[in-house]
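Contributing new records

If you add data, match the layout below exactly. Sequence lines come first and carry their own label; structure lines follow with theirs. Keep one chain per record. Anything else will be rejected by the validation script.
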Amino acid sequence: MKKIWYLFVKYYMRLGFAFYFKKLLITGVQHIPRDKAILFVSNHQNALIDPLLIGAITPRELHFLTRADLFGKPLVRALLSTVNMLPIYRIRDGLTSLSKNEEVFKKCHRIFHKGGTVLIFPEGNHNIKRRLRNLSKGFTRIIFSSLEIDPEHEIVVVPIGINYSNAKKFGSSVHIIFGPPIPVDDQHKTSVSNGASSSLKDEISDAMKKLITHVDDAEQHDKITASFREEEFLHPHTVNKKLEELRDSHEIKVSEVENQFNLLRPIVRANSILTILVWKFLYPRIKEEEFISTYRFSLGITLVPLCYFLQAGLVAYWFNDLAGILYLGMSFLIAYLYAKTN
């Protein structure tokens, strides 16, 4: 039953993203081994949208390591556990809470032993800026502690790059890139046993930087990224080359913003007036910009279809069943076309 629920959520999320993003590009799926234990590691810009996206498009079933504060309420904890989410505790959750990670690590060991997969965001938190931050060493602990228990078991690390044209905007685009798998070999194990900084962490960091736009100069980040068009960020290899050229030339020009009017916009807004009113209430209360898309997407996959079905019921009541069915179909079609042309 849990498997069926997981698949339902996965494909419902995929359907939701089809209505949310203008383009959803996926590259490198062939790099995902079919029969090995995998630790997926990804950059983290966009709160809950990031794990939902990866879970929706990855062919293998995933287990997600998620910040523990999301599991505070029993009902939420029960719901998250049904889709394979596991709490990971950080220092900000309290030093006494860190001991709870040992039990989470044991669960990861069991998953790896069965040839399963785990997803973690090794930066430790989210940040909307287009750069890879320093990776925490917690994810390497999971790997090496698993290998201590079962030294002969093979675990590979698959790096992921999530590239948004605009992480806060509805109707933007995203490109998810899976990099080649990185096997955990004897050299990595030796570096840990010698007490050195894990060479595996450094290798993974370098691999991840190639899969995303990485602006090394944090102080000049906003000025540098303003010199690119949003669609360019879908192709990090090209953007990173241009970033090197910018460093050499020291010339940064602000890119012009194109404002285009979408004829479907007033139709969609009029047909979704209740959702818009709820959004206007919620938006000022969102404390972190990284959560803007999470709240907007959540409304899009819950309140929007609910309103469309209720409104279709009223149309059917006032006119006839055929009119209600036509209204419902046109509502979803126009919303889909709006996302693809926004």
